[in-house]
Amino acid sequence: MPATVQPPESVTWRVHLDRSMWVGGVRSLMLQALHPMAMWGVWQNSTFREDPFGRLQRTSDFVGLGTFGSPEEVDKAAYRVREIHRSLRILNHDTGKKERLDQPELLLWVHCAEVYSYLEVARRAGLPLTDAMADRYLDEQRASATLVGLHAEDVPGSVAEMEAFFADMRPRLRVTEEAAETVRFLMWPTMPENLRFLAPGKPGYFPFGALCYYSLPDWARQMYGALPEVPRPAVTAALRSFRLAMNAVPEKVHDYAFAKDTRDMLERARQRLAAEGYDVGKGLFGLRDPRRWPGRELASA
């Protein structure tokens, strides 16, 4: 039994450890919101408006678990997610009818918008990945798609397949009132009651939210029209600066962005990997270096 669902040798490990994931995660929510039914599903069945940071944290926790958790931990969490999705319904405002939340088209849209956002942002922010590695990442993420009930063979597993998927989906997308409000909210969030103490620092969040918005594909920004356009090189430079700054934060400090259960899961992952012979002296982040894998030796200083 592997120590983690995705081993340090995977491209997923390299992408999901990169701190550009924070931009990719918010960008994915903005992209997902362009699908009316997906947006209505969030609007009607979650506490996004009351607890936006909690929802973002829970999403990042599930992604982390699906990468660094043990197979047993992931199976239990995935079962709970599938059961919740199975019980929820969405009111389709176009037809007036209620539909299942766990319909394959919606699950596939959410998955693709999420993982492709992670990949595109990470590469643009400076994570060195070859085209073959990018394809491998998307192929590896087919396994994560099965956690929410999709069939791996139905999920795009390469950059070309993913681009074709989005081209096919674009005629079905539009900016609903809920989508427009969501994007505005993600750039300028209303602080929930339990986070009112952070309100004085709220203006400092806007540059991050705007960066997430500007990282969207050109066609998605054109649909929203929420902010004036800025030169593409400026956005790329900002993404690279954000990534460098965040990657410099010590792992133990960065872990506090996650819920305690997730921090405990990450510590268990370190212990299991150490037992398998990985050198975790520099944490999970350090395992991007193949010389820290079993059977490899670090060059002497």
Which SSEs are present, and which pair or pack?
Blueprint: H1 11-17, H2 21-32, H3 36-45, H4 52-68, H5 71-87, E1 89-91, E2 98-100, H6 104-125, H7 131-147, H8 159-169, H9 177-187, H10 206-214, H11 218-224, H12 232-247, H13 251-254, H14 260-275
Antiparallel strand pairs: 1-2
Helix pairs in contact: 2-6, 2-10, 4-14, 6-7, 6-12
Descriptive report:
By secondary structure, the protein is an all-alpha fold. It has 14 helices and two strands; from the N terminus they run αααααββααααααααα. Strands 1-2 form a two-stranded antiparallel ribbon. The chain is globular and about 60 Å long. The mean pLDDT is 90.
Number of helices: 14
- Strand content bin: under 5%
> Which regions are unreliable across 5 or more consecutive residues at pLDDT < 50?
none
| Average pLDDT, all residues | 90
Q: How many strands, which pairing sense, and closed or not: the largest β-sheet? A: 2 strands, antiparallel
Task: Note the overall shape.
Answer: globular
Task: Report the strand count.
Answer: 2
Ends: how far apart?
A: 34 Å
The class by helix and strand makeup works out as: mainly alpha
Order of strands in the sheet with most strands: 1-2
Please write the string of helix (H) and strand (E) elements.
Answer: HHHHHEEHHHHHHHHH
- What is the radius of gyration? 19 Å
Helix content: 55-70%
